[in-house]
Amino acid sequence: MPKYYEDKEEDTRACAGIREDFKACLLQHDCVIKEGKMPSECLKEGHCKALQTSFFECKRSMLDTRSRFRGRKGY
């Protein structure tokens, strides 16, 4: 789940919770911190794959016309 702070602005964009978790996962991963690689390089190596898939599914559900009945996927 996303981290909540009192001073933080609320992100009202679609899939904001998953986006924040995905970003935090990449930036806090050993691949970025210890090895000094770019987050995009770590993605290609397969790190944070579950969150990447969830983020993709959430963004794809925005384009799906059935989502008006089912609601967007994600949090």
From TrEMBL:
UniProt key word Disulfide bond: yes
PROSITE patterns in alphabetical order: CHCH
Signal sequence coordinates: none
InterPro entries on file: Cyt_c_oxidase_assmbl_Pet191 (IPR018793)
Record keywords, A-Z: Disulfide bond
GO cellular component terms, A-Z: mitochondrion
GO BP annotations listed: mitochondrial respiratory chain complex IV assembly
A Pfam family hit: Pet191_N
Role: Involved in an early step of the mitochondrial complex IV assembly process.
The family this protein is said to belong to: Belongs to the PET191 family.
Name under which the protein is recorded: Cytochrome c oxidase assembly factor 5
